[in-house]
Amino acid sequence: MKREIPIIIVGVTGVIMFFQYFIPTGWSEFIFTYAQDWVMVIGILSLPLGIWSLVKANVLKLKDPKERFYSAVLLAGFLAMVLTGLKRESFEAGSVFMKLFNTILIPIQATVFSLLAFFIASAAYRAFRARSVLATVLLVTAFLVMLRFIPLGPISTANLGIVAWILSVPNMAAKRAIMMGIGLGAAATAIKIILGIERTYMGRD
Amino acid sequence: MSFLEKMMLIDRRWIYLSIGLAVIIPVVVSFEVPVSVSPEVRKIYDFVESLNAGDYLFIAVDYDPSSMAELNPMAEAVLNQAFAKNLKVIIVTLAQFGPGMVEDLTTRLASAHNRVRGEDYVFLGYRPYPAITIMLMGINFRVPFPVDHYSVPLDSMPMMRDVRNFSDVKAVIDFTAGNTADFWITYGVGRFDFPLAIGITGVMAADYYQYLQSGQIFGIIPGVKGAAEYEELVGFPGKGKEQMAYQVIAHSVIIAFILISNIAYFATRKQKQQLGGGR
Amino acid sequence: MKNRQVDSGAIGILAVLFGLLFFGSASWAQVPQSSVAADTTGPPAPQPPVNVRVVDKPNDAGHGLIVKWDLSPDDGAGLNNVSTYEIFRSASPEGTFISRGITIRGNKEYVDSDNLAPSEGRPNPNYMPAGSTWYYKLTAVTENGVRSAETAVVSGTTVENLFHYGKLPVLVGAVLFTGLLLYLIINAKRGKKLYVRPLAGINAVDDAIGRATEMGKPILYILGLGTAGDIATIAGFTILSRVAKRTAEYQTRVLVPVNDPVVLAVAQETVRTAYLEVGRPDQYNPDNIYYVTSMQFPYVAAVNGIMLRERPATNFYMGVFHAEALILAETGNIAGSIQISGTDQIAQLPFFVAATDYTLIGEELYAASAYLSQEPVQLGTLKAQDYTKAIVMLLVIFGAIAITAGWTFLRNLVTINL
């Protein structure tokens, strides 16, 4: 029964929410908002689980000389943000929490994002080689689309129309085809889960 | 090993150094770059320009600080235009750290245009689970946001008195770096059929032209270049146009490296073929 | 036949409504006329719209009505001075009429709805509950604000609909797809052989795990930034199960830093079960599967740190990825790992294709469970997807021909009205 009960819950809930989509009544809307509220509640209630995992993993890593420094920094940052962010007033401008957020978190996140610029260059250098006819077509198209995002005066203006066509026609066709496949795959996976065919997420004793 | 073979196996740190120099040069030697406006950006500008004073515009600021450099300029440009035209602006954020972005934007721009919170603009706040929040806002903004970000009841605000949901706003403009645009298109436009335009990072642009083609969105502001184009139209100088110099040089360096890599590839391939034919 | 999806009851109510409307319109002369007459001084007033009627807004929970009318004779013709129409509503024929909205000339209908139920501290006199009756009248207005005479008062009653007919194509498509799926699964269970083309990414999984074992280095498995409800993340769990079984057999460490607490719980359960099934429960170490952070770039920074310190031999990226895809893949390159990726995020596929050794594109990720298990039931599902894709392709081709020829029946058949 330990395995059957979750499968029944998933199946019944899945079928209810499937038919809910087609029923516009007030009670149907209530079921929808009620279920979505519970999704939020489950998500929030699972947060302590994540925090416990994070703290435990890093406290254990303090013993390892290789990992000690990074784990110490993580735990220090974690404690600093939790302790300074406990009160409602912490989210007002000028508070210690907001200062830490604005002066440390924001710049660091932007810095990590900016790594993309460097990594794109190295990935492009390695991958954008005209090894075949298709690779050459890809390369030329990439050049044209790149030029769209660089303001080069008359060259850019002339290029806008070509790139708009590339993005709106062949690119769109390919993406729609991939999206159709993804949509069908997602629908099939969802049906398999509702019918209890796909049970990897459940584990077993 | 010949020079070309060395180029094929170049240490990636030389590439990083080149890119680093490419973005430092414009700091020292700044120059302006002429910006041509694309039709998909102009459509958004023209739409906002066609609105009358007192019309409602809904803006979703759905990005985190990591995408600020690319998306803040376009959000600023649109907000500048909206405040200058005396539109009523409703702002929401579906990104976890969006409130900080919005507070920064509204504080600066509202004071520059003498706009008052509650009368000229309202910041609803942040809610998780974008799909759910959009659908609830479609019923009524007060369902997910009975009070705004500052805990002021929506019903107490003069500008929100006769505003219920998306049918009372002229358009929604979403600025996002993640997949929130998908939720706005699927659950917003799909269910409530309002005009939607998006401002997205450059890397996402290729994904969303199909929605422009199908009419599900009426305009796109793609990346920093799109932000620069909008600033060009609006006439408020901003970070978008400032960043164009960096964009030009960095892209040029990347294109140069790709060309070098291909020249080296073809040259070494030819050499190998000749060596192979000679045996 | 008790079938809640077929709104026979609603059709009956609509029929009664239409009857009432006709009766109501026949007796409108008994309803007190509005005291507002046309403006007779200054510029000429337009004529009011005609044939005003009210119908229930379809496919809703009974909170809306649609006011319909025929254009004023002075709209686009006659005096040609109509600019807008204004719609007034009251809860009773003698009550106070308030303006519900304005629509521009040329329009012949107005949707009036309000579904915000009043509550304590938030009254809403405009709320339209299901089964409520409302009274409407219209005026035509010129650009200068000169009004026509008001139309006669007409009424309508909101009806709670039991089925959303606009979504019927979705229901039909879902039922047909499910039917095809079940048919092929049953066929597969009967032993019918089904061919599926090989996928390089999936075939490389075992080799990649073997490489890690030989090098004595761990395997890094990244489930991406999705939640446990995302289909791509669920597909990632399936492949993780397979990888975990192999690592249990070969006694190789598998590290799974996750981005979501619910994903953490499922990932731990998946790996634990895999180790159990292989008979190595003692080898399972829950500390190898841990939560890092829910934020995108801090998660990337943490995973990059793991890659550069642990130097895993193999990296798997299976799930939902956004801008961090290339950062992760390039760092894996720097660390010298062999990398297998799979995502349904189309924007990130080019980065994975450029930076990783093998990529599962879109639905190939979802098909992984079928490829790895080779179970007839799973393969049957794949076949159903393929046949449905073939049907969609034929529909697209035929639809393009139909639209070009001006036949709109196919488009009307598949259009969803939300």
Keywords summarizing the entry:
B: 279 residues; alpha/beta; Rossmann fold; 6-stranded parallel β-sheet; 55% helix; C: 418 residues; Immunoglobulin-like; 2 domains; 4-stranded antiparallel β-sheet; elongated; disordered N terminus
Question: What does this entry look like structurally?
Answer:
By secondary structure, chain A is mainly alpha-helical. Among the domains of chain A are: 43 residues; 63 residues, no CATH class. Chain A is built from 8 helices and no strands. In chain A, helix 7 packs parallel to helix 8. A 6-stranded parallel sheet of chain B has the order 3-2-1-4-5-6, with helices on both faces. Chain B has 2 domains: 61 residues; 202 residues, Rossmann fold (3-Layer(aba) Sandwich), CATH 3.40.50. In chain B, strand 1, helix 4 and strand 2 form a beta-alpha-beta unit. In chain B, 55% of the residues lie in helices and 12% in strands. Chain B has 11 helices and 6 strands. With 279 residues, chain B is of the alpha/beta class. With 418 residues, chain C is an alpha/beta fold. Helix content of chain C is 41%, strand content 18%. Chain C is built from 12 helices and 13 strands. In chain C, strands 10-9-8-11-12-13 form a 6-stranded parallel sheet, sandwiched between helices. Chain C has a 4-stranded antiparallel sheet with strand order 4-3-6-7. Chain C has a 3-stranded antiparallel sheet with strand order 1-2-5. In chain C, helix 2 packs antiparallel against helix 11, helix 3 packs parallel to helix 4 and helix 6 runs parallel beside helix 7. The N terminus of chain C is likely disordered. Classes of the chains: A mainly alpha (205), B alpha/beta (279), C alpha/beta (418). Chains in contact: A-B, A-C, B-C. At the A-C interface, helix 2, helix 3, helix 4, helix 5 and helix 8 of A face helix 2, helix 4, helix 5, helix 6 and helix 7 of C.
